[in-house]
Amino acid sequence: MQYFQHHLQIQVAILLSNNPEALALERAKKFNVPTKVFDIQQFRENGEVLNWLKEFEVTHLVLAGFLWLLPKHLIQAYPSKIINIHPSLLPKFGGKGMYGMKVHEAVKASGETETGITIHLVNEHFDDGKVLFQASCKIVSTDSSQEIAAKVYALEYSNYPKTIEKWALAEI
Hints:
- The structure is a single chain.
- By secondary structure, the protein is an alpha/beta fold.
- Helix content is 36%, strand content 17%.
- Helix 4 (72-77) links the parallel strand 3 and strand 4.
- Helix 5 packs across helix 6.
- The radius of gyration is 16 Å and the shape is globular.
């Protein structure tokens, strides 16, 4: 929201969350971005979330920290217009159940010497859409899962907004 606050071509139209305690809801208020909280039925079954997206004239969806698989009707309504970020170099450490610290703990346990982020289009499968961007960082055997997470978060913070911008402007 901060990155796009004064953008001439892109604006954050609404923030939706399935978690009423999400910090992003408070952040959205600071940027005067409308918010709505939804439950599983509103998301999957009755089309209410899709109606909100249309009401706010949303053209692109950006996921961040969202763990539910998107329903087919939402993906069909926004073909190639839904983007997500994953805290590993997919296809490694992706799929159902691989999120947050679980990913970093798996990376640590595997003995990998690098990890990173993957920004990808969303399809009907977890972490399976077309890769738009990846960035990596070195890790050493003495790095804790928390240290790995901090390195990955730095990559997310510096790369996700710029990649969203290029994608929304059809530059990638």
